[in-house]
Design brief:
With 489 residues, the chain is of the alpha/beta class. It folds into 3 domains: 214 residues, 3-Layer(aba) Sandwich (Rossmann fold), CATH 3.40.50; 82 residues, no CATH class; 77 residues, Helix Hairpins (Orthogonal Bundle), CATH 1.10.287. Strand 7, helix 5 and strand 8 form a beta-alpha-beta unit. The radius of gyration is 25 Å and the shape is globular. It starts with 6 loop residues before the first helix and ends with a helix.
């Protein structure tokens, strides 16, 4: 995965350094120092959040390519865990009271231990380091406690997510409940710019959509549900990606062995009627065909634990399509699970825009930091405000203003026709100029200029028609379209 450049972040770090040089120790200096420390590491922090049992930790493991996050019920699921690449496996416990981090043994093979020798209420988060090339240096993943896991942890869960630059929202059963969850995140995280600019949705349980049905039909149904969910969350998430997380974790974490591949090959060679009967449900898979399909019960249970019925059906189909060796089978299952698509979207929508996302989060924190300035520190605070205003006019930062507009629309304070709400969403979530204008990728420059010119005129009319309260947001949209238009001349 490509690494991002951080010119804007370096400018914010410079602001922090100048302010700290002029400040004495105190709350204002501490707040500015915290921002500088956060920017010291050039990585985008991506939180994985969602409700209890949404499949967050399984998704984290699939993204990491290694089983580092706990997927069972352990006390360490009550605290956030950050995952970073390092040449050795170790875990650091960070505390709420600011005492130095403590090192604790990782799980055997690396990852979050089942328990830590501290009360979870003392802990701010864990940092899990592992010898893992898949983590890379482009982003840091954060696994967060589930919403409603323990009611007292709701504020903790929100505080953890608030420290991230972007969010992957795990949704096992998409619908109004997930929209409400995201709006709840937004309400709690005012000032954090949570929107389609930095949120990806993931439909995590596509393997449960159609047991016993055609695999292509399951995929089509998953895509339809994901598209409907994204439509309900216009302005709140950039896109909803369907992923079979159990299958993704097994394939990407290389949990399948040669013995498993051999057993799956036997299944692929079995009589189709017998195989269909076996794959009707878990109980049938364990009892049907024991005398005609030579895969023992213990191996069948292992395959169920690793793949579930959906994954076994995908594996058999992949073998039928030519994935005969273990490496080819793993690659095929990664593609079929949807994890490859998610990794592509993570790169396109979040990592490629990491500089602006991280700079915006840091600038928001600095705006809050100036509230700690004493009377004697107002000169430094005023200079910092001026620098923040200046940097806020940088073209790359306008995306964050679009995020504010999307938040206002989602909250009902910016009334927009559906057509214009969709235009705002594509402008903010688009990666290329064609996507931002809602045109095909092969659109010509003349087509782009023509369409963007139409959008400028449309939003200028909308700007004049809206009440003053909403006009500020529509002005931003119109100005961004204008900037795109002039960039094409």
């Amino acid at each position: 995965m490509e690494e991002a450049t951080y010119d804007l972040c370096h400018r914010v770090r410079g602001m922090c350094a100048d302010a700290l040089a002029a400040l004495r120790p105190g709350p204002f200096a501490d707040a500015v120092g915290a921002v500088a420390e956060r920017l010291a590491g050039d990585t985008l922090v991506v939180a994985v959040g969602g409700r209890l049992n949404a499949g967050k930790s399984t998704l984290v493991n699939a993204l990491l390519g290694q089983r580092l996050a706990p997927t069972g019920g352990t006390e360490t699921t009550l605290v956030s865990a950050w995952f970073r690449s390092h040449h050795m496996n170790r875990v650091w416990v960070h505390f709420n009271d600011g005492r130095p981090p403590a090192s604790v043994p990782s799980r055997v093979g690396g990852g979050v231990p089942r328990s830590i020798p501290y009360d979870h209420t003392e802990v701010s988060h864990l940092v899990v380091e592992a010898a893992n090339k898949a983590i890379g240096r482009a982003f840091t993943l954060m696994d967060t406690p589930g919403r409603d896991a323990v009611s007292a942890l709701d504020d903790y869960s929100m505080a953890s997510i608030r420290t991230a630059d972007a969010l992957i929202l795990a949704m096992p059963q998409p619908g109004e409940g997930d929209t409400a969850t995201l709006r709840e995140f937004q309400e709690t995280m005012r000032g954090s710019r949570l929107s389609a600019a930095n949120v990806l949705g993931v439909l995590t349980r596509i393997d449960q959509l159609g047991q016993g049905t055609d695999l292509e039909e399951v995929r089509r149904e998953a895509d339809k549900i994901a598209a409907r969910s994204a439509g309900r969350m216009t302005g709140l998430v950039a896109e909803v990606v369907p992923v079979a997380t159990k299958l993704a974790e097994t394939a990407r974490c290389e949990r399948l062995t040669e013995q498993h591949r051999h057993a799956l090959g036997i299944l692929a060679a079995a009589d189709r009627d017998t195989l269909d009967e076996m794959l009707f449900d878990h109980e049938d898979f364990l009892r049907v065909g024991l005398d005609t399909v030579p895969v023992e019960t213990g191996m069948r249970q292992e395959l169920l634990d690793l793949l579930a019925i959906y994954g076994i059906r995908q594996a058999v189909d992949a073998i039928d399509c030519g994935a005969r060796d273990l490496s080819a089978l793993r690659d095929a299952l990664c593609e079929r699970s949807g994890i490859n698509r998610l990794l592509e979207r993570l790169q396109e929508r979040l990592v490629n825009g990491a500089d602006a996302l991280r700079a915006d989060a840091a600038m928001a924190a600095l705006h809050r930091a100036v509230d700690f300035a004493t009377a004697a520190e107002q000169q430094v605070a005023g200079r910092l405000r001026g620098l923040l205003r200046e940097l806020g006019r940088h073209p790359a930062m306008r995306r964050m203003e679009l995020a504010e507009a999307a938040q206002a629309h989602a909250a009902g304070t910016l009334p927009l026709p559906d057509r214009n709400a969709g235009q705002l969403h594509t402008l903010m979530a688009g990666v290329t100029n064609a996507q931002r204008a809602g045109l095909p990728e092969d659109a010509s420059q003349d087509e782009l200029r023509g369409r963007i010119g139409e959008l400028v005129d449309e939003w200028r009319s909308l700007e004049a028609a809206l009440p003053r309260k909403g006009r500020r947001h529509t002005t931003v949209v119109r100005e961004v379209f204008e900037a795109l238009y002039f960039s094409l001349l």
